[in-house]
Amino acid sequence: MPWARADGRPCYLVGDGTGYVSRLADEIEDVQIGMADALLGHAAELLAERRVTSAELHYLARRLSESLRDVMRIAESRGARLARPPRP
């Protein structure tokens, strides 16, 4: 699921992936991935600038870190749902 518990641990949805909560999680994941894509574009523009302050870079690094954490949670969640190929 695209969010974490109060203690920071990831939430996991148990079900067949067709219910309301599954659809809501999918929609939020889509938004988070879209935000990550937009942030990467902003990062490229900011880093192309000659005059960037340390405060701007710090803010960018924090947002990129948050976004990467979200995308990693999505990848882990979706990866866990993929069928594993049989080992030879």
Describe the structure.
The chain has a domain at 20-79. It is an all-alpha fold. α1 (20-48) runs antiparallel to α2. It has helices at residues 20-48, 54-81. The model has no long low-confidence stretch (mean pLDDT 84). It is elongated and about 50 Å long.
Structural class: mainly alpha
Rg over C-alpha atoms, rounded to the nearest angstrom: 17 Å
Major sheet characteristics = none
Overall pLDDT confidence: 84
According to DSSP, the number of beta strands is: 0
Features of this protein?
elongated; 88 residues; 2 helices; mainly alpha
Compile the SSE list and pairings:
Blueprint: H1 20-48, H2 54-81
Helix pairs in contact: 1-2
Short description:
The protein has 2 helices and no strands.
